[in-house]
Amino acid sequence: MMSYHTTVLLHEGVEALNVKSDGVYLDVTFGGGGHSRLILEKLGADGKLLGFDQDADAKTNLLEDGRFTLCEANFRYLSNFLDLYGYSEVDGVLADLGVSGFQFDEAERGFSFRFEAELDMRMNQQQPLSAKTVLNEYPVEELKRIFKEYGETRFGGKLAYLILKARETQQISTIEDFVSLIEQAVPPQKQGSELAKIFQAVRIEVNDELGALKAMLEQSADRLASGGRLVVISYHSLEDRLVKYFMRSGNFSDTLDKDLYGNVNRPLDPVSGKAMVPSDEEIQQNPRSRSAKMRIAVKR
């Protein structure tokens, strides 16, 4: 198999599912198939696993196993596919969010500022909206909002106006074009961290990552069987905050709705108040895992 992606928290993530041999499970971020392979090892002959991935390149990792079905779609449509395949509920959902190592390392995908390539950042190559569209067509106020909300950078205002000025004369087409503008907006000593945050902001907008995450969390809570588990691995504070709030309160504003006895009305119960993080050994072997946080919840 091609080197596609090094799975983060591989054994910990699957262990957190408490896989039953005859259960039905979802790996909603199939990618390189790391978690899926391990889930299949724990399933018996009657178990079922549905994998989700909107990136056509993930099909190169297809698992030849009669218990496995790959759904070529964004995980925001998990309920549609459960209806399609006749599953009213499932026993576990695993999500390993973010961009795969393969996507980051393929220059033409445009996810990383390390390469010279066309601006893209689409996880689903069939969708029309790309990073190029965002940077060349979005109003300046929208650009400022994206950089502030999704990149949590204080240089977004200046960068938005530099983009506006630059595109008056020519299209912003390449990663190099975009990096040049960021370097004009950000002091040299801060450019390393700010490049990552600003690229993240555009990527989140292009793929509606937070909207898709909210939809997946709500549908997972709805379709999990009682005692079923939701396991989510996130890589930045925006994702982790949504996951933490939803598991703790059942909504994304973290508003606690309590009954007369002080019990919180929510569909899931967090297994722990703290997120699990990779070991020092895993971080040393796979530096990209250093920002990972895993949260687990059980359906009531």
Could you list some keywords that capture this structure?
single chain; 300 residues; alpha/beta; Rossmann fold; DNA polymerase, domain 1; 2 domains; seven-stranded mixed β-sheet; 12 helices; globular
Share of helix among residues?
40-55%
Q: For the record, what CATH class of the largest domain applies? A: Alpha Beta
> Which structural class should the secondary elements be placed in?
alpha/beta
**Which value, in Å, is the CA radius of gyration?**
20 Å
- Fourth-level CATH superfamily of the largest domain: Vaccinia Virus protein VP39
Provide a count of the helices: 12
* Beta-strand fraction estimate: 5-15%
- First-residue to last-residue Cα separation: 39 Å
CATH architecture of the largest domain: 3-Layer(aba) Sandwich
Which regions are unreliable across 5 or more consecutive residues at pLDDT < 50? Answer: 101-105
Largest sheet features: 7 strands, mixed
Count of domain modules: 2
Instruction: Give the overall silhouette.
Output: globular
Secondary-structure element sequence? HEHEEHEHHHHHHHEHEHE
CATH topology of the largest domain: Rossmann fold
Overall mean pLDDT score?
92
Major beta sheet, strand line-up? 3-2-1-4-5-7-6
Strand segment count: 7
